[in-house]
Amino acid sequence: MLDGQYRKRLADDLPRWREQGWVSDDGAAAILSSVNSGKGMSVTLATMIAFLGAILLGFGVFAFVGANWDYMPRVLRFGLLLLALALAYGAAAELCRRDMIWIADVAVLIAGFVFAASIALVGQTYHLAGEFSDAILLWLVGMAVAILATRSISAIVIFLVGAVYWTSEVIDSGVLIHWGGLVAILFGAATATWADSRLARRSAMLALAVWMVMSVYQLDVRANWPASAGFALLTLSGLAFWAGGLVLGTARAHPRLAALGRDLEMPSFTGVLLALAMTQVTLFLTHEEGTQSVWLPVLLTVLVTAVGLGAWAHQKRTIRLADLVALVLVGGASFALAFWNEPNTGDLTPRLATGSLVLAGALWWMSLGHAGHPLNSKFGMVIFCAEVLYLYSVTLGSLMDTAIAFLIGGVLFIAMAVVMVRLDRRLTLRPAGVAA
């Protein structure tokens, strides 16, 4: 739920809760004060329009200067760029002084665009030679300084976009793993946590996910990793981040780290199921032998890390023993699938094995949602049903087979629902103090 929507819902619910006697007047005031204690303005429609205006203004300035660039003396060109930067940051400082935080962020965003244009135009003016990726790195360094100086959310977001773009440019030149891009993304994640912005944190998680997918693709194409090993690495990494988020979520003495941990749960577990789903599609892609000695220790290290973090989370009582067992089983099964490197012969066994793993992940999602984790159980049910339909479409031949399977599955699901409803009623009506 967005923060603005959450505050509005609380403002609507708290009067009714006071009338019911569930919260006191002082408690309601304290709750509203706590959710409204965030710095700056809320993101409104006007703020979003201002951001769009900043983007249009930035491109308009670039187009105008570029159209007249050849007619200006070099000194005038350089002076215009410095003046534009000074005006953008000066406007940001004045808007921040007036407590118009998000509008000040728009000014910092414009400054970032002006700085990017300055690098390109100065290089063109003085005919500076070099790699395009080096120009991106220079821009990232400047934006890092701007982030530390202004604590701007928009600067963090566009910095993360630039870090991903930098990685894509570098790997296109033949680099296998771009560790510099990872360092930049981790810096963005650290500053997002420091700024205590959910938007920036989610942007950092998305940037990290894109970096991991690009890196796995490079390992698949250039280092000859089997596709099953690449997706196993993504699955195990998702489990490790999910368990790590659970551990961070218990850091009550450090609320910003705890917020980072809570935000990690949903994206990382979603990544686990996406990687499992892609495993069953690409499991049969063949590769040359001889690389197992490279990827095997990597997968084993990530698996041990995920299990260790899961055990730590269980020790802190953030997950149940059943969740820890599920983590071990799903992680172990994904690790085992990395060794499956056979051509597609139409055998049902591998499809059913990977499909069963996706179904288990969907059921685990629903279980976590019911246990209070930030995972909507309905999404888990949708994933489960989609996987069942996929398995029917790729494994069953005739319409009669499909019809029979649907009928049997429907009866079983209805029976399971009846059992779950009756069990829920029994637990609800159980007297207080009686063990479940």
UniProtKB/TrEMBL annotation:
Transmembrane parts of this sequence: 43-66, 78-95, 101-123, 135-164, 176-195, 202-219, 225-248, 269-287, 293-314, 321-340, 352-372, 379-397, 403-421
Highest rank taxon of the organism: Bacteria
Pfam families linked to this entry: DUF2157 (PF09925)
InterPro entries per the UniProt record, alphabetical: DUF2157
Residue intervals of the DUF2157 domain: 16-152
Keywords noted in UniProt: Membrane, Transmembrane, Transmembrane helix
Record bears the keyword Lipid metabolism: no
Claim: Nucleotide-binding is one of the keywords in the record: no
Name of the protein in question: DUF2157 domain-containing protein
Organism encoding this protein: Flaviflagellibacter deserti
